[in-house]
């Protein structure tokens, strides 16, 4: 059962691809997440700052010890200063552990918000957007990318923040000891700045490419797994293997690119760590010889700069994760720019009646020419209309436009005078529901799968819906409506899953039902029984059936014949047969009467 609409246009980098947020959008989204938990974030900052301040006591007190010993101080003074070093280290440990605890709680809450927001945005995507982007991309964003972004919030982000606070405090301490030594130390760190800048200029695009490569690989693998029977039947195994290997090679190439960036960054950083320490010891020795600074000050400054390597090392080692996480967050946040349907009718109007009008509709997919070429059609409330025609005539495309999944390039599709694509999801489901050959059995019980269509339905109503579509197998289920479906539970074969989808239609109770070969997976006897059951249940409602069996067209009030994206014939079954046109050729061919169509070619199937 499919029901969705078109929203504002997305701006993906490639037609059909889901958008990726830019740097400004990522920063704005991150700030918004922080504002949702401001108190916890501020408390985390405060404890990190206190932990960093406690960590400064060690080198400073060690310098005092050196000066005390040089000046002839006693053992008691040295012991007191040593106890101060121990107390500072203990305070830093406790404060840092509590800060990390606060950071983890903040990260988990924020990750939960990201996940909930992603699910809401994914569910708001029109089916056409998901189909064109591919399920692999959406799956990769909802699993790998969300998990990577969560790791940044829970682990990487707090680690980098704590290290940054410590680095700032350490540099401030060196400047307080002696401004000249502080300036010397900062100048010695310029190599790190240049190496990091070189890396950051290239890292974001490299990690975005890596994420896109993973999505493409996931799409190929998912399509191959879901279509395994088709692959075997059409002997496409070698081609699918070749496609998979090509995507794997693309993933490896993307990962090699990010590995190269890291292999340049980290050695440059390791060399740069020693430069400020050596420079301060050299300059400090000269200044001490001149009597400008004490030996304890030189030692404390050198220790501070040596200590600086730890937070800088944390920051720089995590830069790779920050870039990877930032690219993942950009992909997750990109769903905010994807088209989505309005929560209310954008026209400000509600349908007046259930009459469906199609006026001069033209439509083309992203690749290829027009599929529909000026289709006009009027469907009366309560009418049963069958749409027939050869494969590729545009029948399924028309059904998608009637259901609001796609929007015509030109022309209009309205229900009750309101464009179908402007209806909110809830309102659309009351008006039009599309049922195709494709079906999905959700993880959960039979009851869970049915309540999707009607949350307040009783067990009696659920069982009546199953009975209405001929799902007699449901009576024999081991736990009835509580039977678990899917992996690890009861598995439904194609026909049973299709009947489950049709039962949802009965429960949804729409004014108009579009059946796009909805019983194609059923055997002829079961399909006929199901169609008759649906006809009884849906009597008085509008039913548009994309017919693959001409008996369906025979039972309809009117038949629309499509060919090459146009409606070429329209009328009751008897009139079209008497007209001796394309429909008559189809009808006689279906009954085994050899006959050529008026167009001079063999008649296609319905």
UniProtKB/TrEMBL annotation:
Residues 334-355 are annotated as: Disordered. Its main location: membrane. The chain crosses the membrane at residues 38-61, 81-99, 160-177, 183-200, 264-287. It is a multi-pass membrane protein. Residues 336-351 have a biased composition (Low complexity). One of its GO terms (cellular component) is plasma membrane. PANTHER family: ATP-BINDING CASSETTE SUB-FAMILY B MEMBER 10, MITOCHONDRIAL, ATP-DEPENDENT PERMEASE MDL1, MITOCHONDRIAL. This is Multidrug ABC transporter ATP-binding protein. It comes from Streptomyces venezuelae.
